[in-house]
Amino acid sequence: MAEGQWWAVALTEAVSSEKPLPVVCEGEELVLFRNAAGQAFALEDRCPHRRVPLSPGVLTPGGLQCPYHGWTFDGASGVCREIPNLHADERVPARHAAKAFLVAEADGFIHVWRGSGAPTGVLPSAAYRPAGREYSGSAVVNMAHCNYLETMLDGPECLLAFPCVTITDFFLGEPRRDDKHLVLDHGGVWKGKGIGPAFVRDHPLVLRTRVPLVGGAIFVELLTAAEVPLVTIFIASTANRRGTTSLNWRGFRHAHKIPSAPLAWQLRRAAGRAPFEVLAEVKGASIAALRVAPSLNLTSRTRHEAECRNPR
Amino acid sequence: MNDIAIAKAGAADGYENSRLADWVPIHFDLRDTWFPVAFSADIGTQAVRRIVHAQAYYLWRDRGRIRAAEFRPDQLEELRRSATAFTGGTGHYPVTERYGYVWAWYGNPDNADPALIPSIPFLPVDGSNIPRYTQRTVRFDAASPLSVENLIDLTHADFLHAKAIGDGRSESDIVEVQSTSETVTRTRIVTRKSVAPVMRWIGGVRAKYQDLRAVLHVHLRNNLAISYPSFSPGYAIPNVQPFVPVGRHRSRVDQTNYTVAAPAPFRWLMPRISYVIQPQDNAVLRPQNERYFDADRRRDLSSRFDAPGNRYRLVMRRLAERQRRGDFSYAADGDPSVDISAVLGMDG
């Protein structure tokens, strides 16, 4: 039985046939690139010859050429196709290969399969169905992955911003299990409308975060109280090195017009301004002050407990 | 007594676990050797601090005489009680000058014999008349043995440094490697190679092709690399590259590119090529360093071009193993002071 999973590790437009892209997935360094036909590949970012990163190398018709000695590796198999200076009658041993990963490209993301055996399950981005203009980005945030996921439950307002919207720290109930995610709603209010979130009888907005129990696929929705979706975001997260977290995201504003929204929201919509921001810079003081609450349910995850005890 | 104290400090700390499995450059800490810790011309009455492995070496001149100590001269008396076995508790290292370098002993001071200073036959023994333009300092951001392996390695030069030193295309390219218990010697004989751009444009060699005989002689204990590349048409560009380990992750190299036989302006400019080459090497050495911290179950793959580097790994492991057992002596085949003129091919 296969053990492993798909990870969304890059935005599809970030991977080219011109320049290899180094990424980190669960602490493992990978390099992504395309061939001339546009097919995407992923190799371990480590030459098996002298262990230097392959990502500063150059792309050739034969694959990715290591910047140190020029060994060239096939994208699909990882097999070394060429060693410079070998005579024409010399062959590269078949066992000379870089570690290759299966790649799937869908929904605007490059996914890699990390694990043994044949891939199973759906891609992390499968539930993301954009409608309308997308806003995307990438960042490495200064937080461990397990802390990032916990914060997405306990205080998403520390990680996300929505112009014209204040996300409150009032949780609407308990996290509920939905397949491989924990789902939690936070109350939200329009900025500049009413006398402040402390005095609202019912929150006019809901921020719903779906935090993965396995993997790194985070879904965020900004909804009206009647559950009309305003904004949907998919954030692909994974552990980077030294206790940081890599993020790649796409999101969009739904077509619904909300009469109760403030004028600024309507104007931003008309101007095509981004309806959300995934914060690349998190405020340490805010994170530190955040009390553990719904993430209690998340830290029961064996893997995350282990990660938090042994941050990379 | 010094033997015991230094041996306990670890001839190759942490090496034991990896000696059979892999190449872990940061574990090498070979003792009883002279390190060229500074250019003689750089040392005056003001003390300068140099590092060999984890030991501090303060160097200065006292009425013209070279001195090396574990502490600053003004603190020497105060701190002498904490002097280590490397100075036999005196605080003063054995130190001498030769070939334009200050040589300081690293190991048991009882064994410090100036006769163990390596022979560098193309440099004046007393260091006189070595032009300052031949002397350059560069630093490498990796364990010293990793940097030495980079120097021994040939095919990376043809690839990584092709724009500066040529593309490695030739009619014939023969590489031989020999070793003793203390040295590795790599000889490369190339017939009709493309003339290096730097030699063509400023070195006065207008031919399209040239032959090359390049000998690299590496002393294992002190990472001293003595190189004698001789070009025809052209000239020899003998050089010395001592990779002095500054801790486990960096090395300092006080190079002497002895270009005095080359025409001007090449003789002045060529030593500065280090400033072009070094960043190129560092670009691979920096990320490479941390990937050799631990024995890796995945052994490095090699091609036949890696034979010299793999020999270096092997003899380094053997020497470290010998020192780990407490044997710091030089074997009969390993006299560093033996004349290597013939080995370098200086005669012909």
Describe it.
The complex is a heterodimer of chains A (312) and B (348). By secondary structure, chain A is mostly beta strands. Chain A has two domains: 4-124, Rieske [2Fe-2S] iron-sulphur domain (Rieske Iron-sulfur Protein, 3-layer Sandwich); 128-309, Alpha-D-Glucose-1,6-Bisphosphate, Chain A, domain 4, CATH 3.30.530. Chain A is 12% helix and 38% strand. Chain A has helices at 145-154, 263-271, 284-289, 295-298, 302-309, and strands at residues 4-11, 21-25, 28-34, 40-44, 58-60, 63-65, 72-73, 80-82, 100-101, 103-106, 109-115, 134-141, 160-161, 165-171, 176-178, 181-190, 205-212, 217-224, 229-239, 245-253, 277-278. The mean pLDDT of chain A is 92. Chain B is α+β, with helices and mostly antiparallel strands and 348 residues long. Chain B folds into two domains: 32-133, Rieske [2Fe-2S] iron-sulphur domain (Rieske Iron-sulfur Protein, 3-layer Sandwich), CATH 2.102.10.10; 137-344, Naphthalene 1,2-dioxygenase Alpha Subunit, Chain A, domain 1 (Alpha-Beta Complex), CATH 3.90.380. In chain B, 23% of the residues lie in helices and 27% in strands. Chain B contains ten helices and 13 strands. Chain B has helices at 2-10, 76-79, 144-152, 155-160, 162-165, 197-202, 266-269, 274-290, 307-324, 341-344, and strands spanning 33-39, 48-52, 55-62, 65-69, 95-98, 101-106, 135-140, 172-179, 183-194, 209-219, 224-232, 239-245, 251-257. The termini of chain B are far apart. The A-B interface holds A 46, 48-53, 56, 67-70, 80, 83-86, 92, 95-96 and B 153, 155-156, 158-160, 168, 173, 283-284, 287-288, 291-292, 296, 298, 300-303, 305-306.
